[in-house]
TrEMBL record, chains A, B:
Its EC number is 1.4.3.5. GO terms for biological process: pyridoxine biosynthetic process. InterPro entries: Pyridox_Oxase, Pyridox_Oxase_Alr4036_FMN-bd, Split_barrel_FMN-bd. It holds the Pfam family Pyridox_oxase_2. Residues 5-97 form the Pyridoxamine 5'-phosphate oxidase Alr4036 family FMN-binding domain. It comes from the Eukaryota. Keywords: Flavoprotein, FMN, Oxidoreductase. Pathway: Cofactor metabolism; pyridoxal 5'-phosphate salvage; pyridoxal 5'-phosphate from pyridoxamine 5'-phosphate: step 1/1; Cofactor metabolism; pyridoxal 5'-phosphate salvage; pyridoxal 5'-phosphate from pyridoxine 5'-phosphate: step 1/1. The keyword Oxidoreductase applies. One of its GO terms (molecular function) is FMN binding. The lineage of its organism: Eukaryota, Viridiplantae, Streptophyta, Embryophyta, Tracheophyta. It comes from Zostera marina. This is pyridoxal 5'-phosphate synthase.
Amino acid sequence: MASPAPWKQLLLTALDSNSHLKHANFIQIATVGFNGKPSNRTVVFRGFSGNSDKFQINTDLRTNKVEDIKHCPFAEVCWYFTETWEQFRINGKIDIIDGLNSSPLKLQQRETAWFESSLKSRSQYLGNAPGFPSIYDETSMKQTNLNPSTGPVDAFCLLVFDPEKVDYLNLKSNNRVVFTVSKPQSEGCKNWISKNINP
Amino acid sequence: MASPAPWKQLLLTALDSNSHLKHANFIQIATVGFNGKPSNRTVVFRGFSGNSDKFQINTDLRTNKVEDIKHCPFAEVCWYFTETWEQFRINGKIDIIDGLNSSPLKLQQRETAWFESSLKSRSQYLGNAPGFPSIYDETSMKQTNLNPSTGPVDAFCLLVFDPEKVDYLNLKSNNRVVFTVSKPQSEGCKNWISKNINP
């Protein structure tokens, strides 16, 4: 059993200190598109996968970000905590888990994520394709008819983000620490090392 | 004279409605590194360049982001306003203005940006190189000795970000509008078109 990543406690403490703010779990995630240009958008941190240091993010399979990630699985999350003035820049790789995934374990993980979402969140996946021109029609009415026991719909996609480097900056104390994985991973084990760097 | 970009008033209104929050002008900017992977970090919006729709950002020439931008000048800013629940995703191109720039006009712009910064902000550029291992030494003491009339130091760099696409999302009204430049630019003129899209 791997010991917890050394930055995880820092992050959990920041989350706790900022938990009175609705936006405390809003993170910005950067990816690279087919054209080689960066994209950046706000998504919601949905907690860690079990006891690991991997993040869960829910998304609509029809968004551009899924295409971006299929093309280039690397991402950098920027998480700024507005109350405590702490920034975490987290670089890592993303695994896309949609309804066609071949792993029964991952499909189970996706189903759990679905049922952990509010009914309001789930109903968004029944709406029109995000990013397409708005046309008011009856399909948008489907949103009200979601059965609470219905499993994940096709558009529901779980993203699992696996951190490989964390750059922590505290603007109050002016401390900056970078955490990196020192050795190649073996069986999910990571050996993290930390270094103080200039802010 | 070009008319103002149609998204600019939306942004100015959001800035005004959120202006009581210290972090209202903190934005996340994504770039692509030499390795083709994305980077993402918080920077401070320093206002528009004159009457244009270009953003100004101050940075240290010694940061990785400057290298990233030299390699690939494209960036996407993600700006989330925590009070009004509005997100602006702004895609564009960055111009780097350091002390070796060949344009006298740009050098003047950089000097103005320097003097518009607080003394505390300016003194950061006298510190040790950001991102390098922390070593306590006397050079960090230089920060207290900055003369207010001294012009920009070598490490001071002005970034000018030129928006080409703006994706606006209002999470309260659930409205999303995308603004794009319809024609190639001629002499700084841009013709913006807008379209309502599904959130």
